[in-house]
Specification:
This is Ribosome-recycling factor. The protein has 188 residues and is of the alpha+beta class. It has four helices and six strands, in the order αββββαββαα.
Length: 188
């Protein structure tokens, strides 16, 4: 068997763990903290022209003031679909229509809503941890296959340690990001 078949692609594993971290950052950006942000609309998809489309591909998203997001929808026929998608998104925002402009006033967060958002943030972080652990499992499976193909025990141990180190590092980043997001949410 060729020597390269026994190598474990640690860069690929790290890239996939970084991808889980990137997805977590996107999900965290969608959690509102009482301040307006165009990023909070990123996860919302609208059924437009027969396919699910992000809001920022249907109109211009602006933040004219700290507690207001506006969407200037380019196609008049899409305004009601964009509005419905926002209402159904679970963001807890009540869109107001003004022609083709949808205004999203961001209400002040109460204590109960802040606690709820910290729980949602914790769920997002747990999803990221699970994704990272799945990448770790894939790496360990690659090591087992390489073992069956004749990889030396020292190499197996070295790769297993490296995969575990990547996992520990990624999980620590998730925990740190969660802690920062929860502090941001609870800050009045």
């Amino acid at each position: 068997m060729a020597e390269q078949d026994l190598d474990i692609d640690l860069d690929d594993l790290e890239r996939r763990m970084d991808g889980a971290m990137g997805a977590l950052r996107t999900e965290f950006a969608s959690l509102r903290t009482g301040r307006a942000s165009g990023a909070m609309l990123e996860p919302i998809q609208v059924d437009a022209y027969g396919q699910m489309t992000p809001i920022n591909q249907l109109g211009t998203v602006n933040v004219p003031e700290p507690r207001m997001v506006t969407i200037n929808v380019w196609d008049k026929g899409m305004v009601s679909k964009v509005e419905r998608a926002i209402r159904d998104s679970g963001l807890g925002i009540n869109p107001q229509l003004n022609g083709t402009i949808i205004m999203l006033p961001i209400p002040e967060l109460n204590e109960e809503r802040r606690r709820e958002l910290t729980r949602v943030a914790a769920q997002y972080a747990e999803h990221a941890r699970v994704a990272i652990r799945n990448v770790r499992r894939d790496g360990m499976d690659q090591i087992k296959k390489a073992k069956a193909a004749g990889m030396a025990e020292d190499d197996q141990k070295m790769y297993a340690d490296e995969v575990q180190a990547l996992t520990d590092k990624a999980i620590a980043l998730v925990d740190k990001a969660l802690e920062a997001k929860q502090q941001e949410i609870m800050q009045v």
